[in-house]
Design goal:
about 280 residues; ATP hydrolysis activity; about 35% helix; repeat; 5-stranded parallel sheet; alpha/beta; 8 helices; elongated; ATP-binding; P-loop_NTPase; nucleotide-binding; 3-stranded antiparallel sheet; Rossmann fold
Length: about 280
């Protein structure tokens, strides 16, 4: 295409640029001039036609892929409090119709994988641990000052300033973090949202892109306990691989609820198996 563009731009002379006919007779000069014009016109038109055809059919180079900045991309922005011993102790917690009685103790820096069949209450357990859902039975104890953050299956990105349907991705990020923290930890730091998408309306993003934005908001102010509910859902294979590889290096506690076979096969931390309704958990 570069050669064709050059042809359209430069092919306006036939032969040598300073060449003149051997005779200066007016008729001969006109003959050669007309021939030059016809040849030039044909060449330029042919090149322009081929260039137009190629430009219509060309395949655009795909944009550069995103590279996940890791779970610790925002850690240097604040001083973390160090915890030791149990940070979450769930004792016989239950939610009527959603979760049978279970007990689980999670200590500082541990990495837990919660598995079980659909309907066993994995998501409900994480909501109880996060303090988003009150149990109908049992209790959850945590040390004072413990910060818990959760990536839910259902994307929830509140609109505190009521910007409406045209709220951009960048505006949503800034509104949820505050202008100062959003400036200190720009969205581009995490490699989760392409720069070209930051000015798009939030509602124009796919569910996977909205989950990535929710994860960026979570990691901009990283919690002491990170709860991830089915983190591989609606995410690209590359991001899933990078996310799974980053979990062991997170300095806080991580609890993941997942039925993903690959994640279960490669998990190296502690496991908690949720049983089907009516059975005792393992």
């Amino acid at each position: 295409m570069k050669r064709l563009r050059a042809s359209v731009r430069d092919n306006h002379v036939v032969g040598h640029e300073n060449w003149k006919p051997r005779t200066e007779v007016r008729g001969a000069a006109k003959f050669y001039s007309d021939r030059n014009a016809a040849v030039v016109s044909r060449r330029v038109n042919d090149a322009r036609s081929r260039l137009d055809d190629l430009e219509q059919r060309q395949i655009r180079r795909p944009p550069a892929g995103l590279r996940f900045g890791g779970l610790t991309a925002g850690l240097e922005l604040r001083n973390r409090r160090e915890f030791s011993g149990p940070v979450l102790a769930a004792s016989e917690v239950a939610v009527s119709g959603r979760l049978e009685s279970v007990s689980l103790t999670v200590s500082a820096t541990e990495k837990w994988l919660v598995t079980g069949p659909n309907g066993s209450g994995k998501s409900t357990l994480l909501e109880v641990l996060a303090g988003q859902l009150d149990p109908t039975g049992g209790s959850v104890n945590a040390p004072a000052g413990l910060r818990i953050g959760m990536l839910s299956q259902d994307v929830d990105l509140p609109d505190p300033f009521e910007r409406g349907d045209q709220r951009s991705v960048r505006q949503a990020y800034q509104d949820l973090l505050g202008a100062e923290l959003a400036e200190q930890a720009p969205l581009s730091r995490f490699g989760l949202i392409a720069g070209r998408d930051e000015n798009r309306p939030l509602l124009a993003l796919s569910l996977g892109q909205q989950r990535r934005l929710a994860l960026a908001v979570l990691l901009a102010d990283p919690p002491d306990v990170l709860l991830l509910d089915e983190p591989t859902n609606h995410l690209s294979l590359l991001l899933v691989t990078e996310l799974e590889a980053a979990i062991p290096g997170y300095p806080g506690t991580v609890v993941v609820a997942s039925h993903d076979r690959w994640l279960r096969r490669n998990w190296t931390g502690q496991r908690f198996e949720m049983a089907a309704d009516g059975d005792s958990p393992v």
